[in-house]
UniProtKB/TrEMBL annotation:
It holds the Pfam family WD40. One of its GO terms (molecular function) is kinase activity. The lineage of its organism: Eukaryota, Viridiplantae, Streptophyta, Embryophyta, Tracheophyta. SMART domains: WD40. WD repeats lie at residues 254-275. Keywords: Kinase, Repeat, Ribosome biogenesis, Transferase, WD repeat. This is P21-activated protein kinase-interacting protein 1-like isoform X1. InterPro entries: PAK1-Kinase_Regulator (IPR051959), Quinoprotein_ADH-like_sf (IPR011047), WD40/YVTN_repeat-like_dom_sf (IPR015943), WD40_PAC1 (IPR020472), WD40_repeat_CS (IPR019775), WD40_rpt (IPR001680). GO terms for biological process: ribosome biogenesis.
Length: 327
């Protein structure tokens, strides 16, 4: 019994909605969060003050991206958090300086059809895109141009870089998950998810978490291609978003790194303690919130006091961003 990890501190059994903002008239499938030092500031009243990004501050109409009505993806470059990338159904990738003036720097044509997903290398120097034309593209973010394009045997829906080194990347094609070498895109291992995979997240220890139509959350060992463990019946609907939290800067004891958050299409967000699941096969969540919305993706962060904050856009008549503190 002494070897079992203790539960995380201060669980919040009834999370409350802190902020709800309109984002636009269409679906958002990826949402960025800035670095920790720019993310949240602690105050007595109110307890959390959202940053300008969470206020959904839009640039003047003349400087807004022309493909905004079909906006799908909004990742931030990891090493250059001022640079915002957007990719949409027109097949283009736009690069912005998201500072005080919100300047449009470059539009890069990548795909003939819409962009399905986008991943930025940890160095911030290049990005990978997969599109509905069954292609994969590489964009040089330093020069602002497409440097490679290739055809896939099947259309890929998800692309992710692995650990912080960026030596591997992952692709999801329906129920198939493949691990590739970043240098030459060589396939290292392939895995079968059984049913269509709709979301994926990579942890710091190299495990790949996936969720989808099977309503489970599965942890994969990307070296052997085998299932490390699985949260069966994690949700009663399709899993549309996953977030694996990272250790705080220069902190090797952060409990938030043992936390996984998952969101389902029925609007339910759940938080899990990965240590308890891996050792005890315990499928009870630490916290849960029902947003009463049709969720499309999930983003999250861990603050300095071990609280877990989540942002999730919902898909309704008008896209809405909801901001929760769940743990």
């Amino acid at each position: 019994m002494g070897l079992l990890p203790s539960p995380l501190r201060n669980p919040n059994p009834s999370p409350s909605l802190l902020l709800s903002l309109p984002l636009g008239p269409h679906q958002v499938r990826r949402l960025p969060l800035p670095p920790r030092r720019h993310r949240l500031r602690r105050r007595l009243r109110p307890p959390l003050r959202p940053i300008p990004l969470l206020r959904a501050r839009l640039p003047p109409r003349s400087r807004r991206p022309r493909h905004l009505p079909l906006l799908l993806l909004l990742p931030l470059a990891p090493s250059h958090p001022r640079n915002l990338l957007s990719a949409s159904a027109d097949g283009n990738l736009c690069i912005y300086d998201a500072g005080d003036r919100f300047v449009h720097l470059k539009t890069v044509p990548v795909h003939r059809k819409g962009v399905a997903d986008l991943a930025v290398h940890p160095s911030g120097r290049l990005a990978l895109t997969v599109g509905r034309d069954a292609g994969i593209g590489m964009v040089n973010l330093v020069r602002g141009r497409r440097s490679f394009f290739g055809k896939l045997d099947r259309e890929a829906k998800i692309v992710r870089y692995g650990d912080g080194s960026g030596e591997k990347f992952f692709m999801v094609r329906e129920e198939r998950i493949s691990v590739h070498e970043s240098e030459d895109a060589r396939v290292l291992v392939e895995m079968d998810g059984g049913r269509r995979v709709l979301s994926a997240a990579v942890s710091e220890n190299g495990l790949l978490f996936t969720g989808g139509e099977d309503r489970n959350v599965t942890a994969w060992d990307t070296t052997s291609g085998k299932v490390a463990y699985c949260i069966e019946g994690a949700h009663s609907a399709r899993v549309k978003g996953l977030v694996v939290f990272k250790k705080r800067d220069n902190d090797h004891t952060s409990e938030a790194s043992n936390v996984l958050a998952s969101a389902a299409s029925d609007g339910v967000i759940r938080v899990w303690d990965l240590r308890m699941i891996a050792i005890k096969d315990n499928s009870n969540p630490l916290a849960e919130a029902n947003t009463k919305s049709r969720l499309t993706c999930l983003a999250g962060s861990s603050s300095n006091d071990e609280n877990v904050s989540l942002v999730s856009p919902s898909y309704c008549r008008i896209g809405q961003m909801k901001y929760y503190i769940l743990y």
